Amino acid sequence: MKKKYYWIAGVIVIICLIFIMIITSNLSPSPSYWSYPYSIQNEWKICNEDNDCSLADTGCCIGCGYSNLSLNRVGIKTIEDWKSFNCKDVLCPQVDCRAPITIPKPICLNNICSVKYNLDYESFCGSYCRDFECYDSNSSSFDYEKEYLKDELKKTNVTFEEAKSHCYKCAESCPYPNPEDFRAEIGIIILGETQRIPSYIGITNRSKIAKLYTLSQGEGEAVGHIYKSIEGGATLGEFFDAWDKNFNSTCIFNYCNNKDHKMKMEVCSGCMGGWTSDKENFEYENYVIKKYDVITITYL
After folding, report:
1. 68-97 confidence digits (pLDDT tens)
2. Which residues is 59 bridged to in the sheet?
3. By residue range, what is the domain housing residue 153?
4. What burial class does residue 267 get, using C-beta atoms within 10 Å of its C-beta: 0-12 exposed, 13-18 middle, 19+ buried?
């Protein structure tokens, strides 16, 4: 009888062990995050020239940026052989990555495979313009980004001032604030002649932008495109103030109503990009511009 109980107990123990193994295997890390688990051998870094070295990615999945490990052909083949066996059924997650500021290059330095970092000036300037020029430099919003930029530069022999000197197109790189995806059109015709709306009205510098502003205006366009930098209302008068031009119920620029000429303002609310049906508007400088408005001011 006792032997029977021992046999039953043994079966129960085996079943429990199998159950535990199944559970723990499901709780183990996903292979998609595994990397080469062994130590990098010194002989894998011996080299005679730069061509002996390559960047080694030791993980099953490629993450953000570049590898900073440089190995010779023997080391690369060893890791690739391990990956071909262990990573063949791995499903890698999709990762959104920022553009790298520095790009590693494998080199042979003193017969050891090493890494030299080159500065990607285009990526650096994009980040520099955004973090240092586009917004208020005293703001703490980009402190982390600023430190990241400086830390990346430490990998290279390029100083911050030297790198910054390459960023001469910040004005073209800056994202302009437009929180409501706001756009409107304005056309001005004086005595039969269409007035061209200048580019960058309301933009003093990257950190000082008026409520209403324009960006680059196409040559020969009969209308100007207005954007808004704030949430909430902004009037047509505020746009002309940013432009430093005169506009009210009786005058536009230096042209004022008289017995021979009269100013007229028409607004098609929400009609931008479609067929327009203008309605005369008498609010003039007090008119609060709405999204997709088409505004026409004539002096005839």
Report:
1. 889 999 999 998 888 888 887 777 766 656
2. 35
3. 122-173
4. buried
Do 189 and 153 lie in a common domain? no
- Does residue 179 lie within any of the structural domains? no
At what angle are helices 121-128 and 143-153 packed, to 10 degrees?
A: 150
Quick one: residue 110, left, alpha or beta (phi over 0 = left, psi -120 to 50 = alpha)? left
Residue position matching structure tokens 């990098």: 40
Which residue has 């008068």 as its token pair?
237
Tell me: do 112 and 126 sit in the same domain. Answer: no
pLDDT at 140 over 60: no
Rounded to 5 degrees, what angle do the CA atoms 109, 115, 116 make?
90
pLDDT of residue 288: 95
Take residue 268 and report the two structure tokens written for it.
């098609």
C-alpha 252/C-alpha 239 separation (Å) is: 13
Residue 287 CB: number of other CB atoms within 10 A?
17
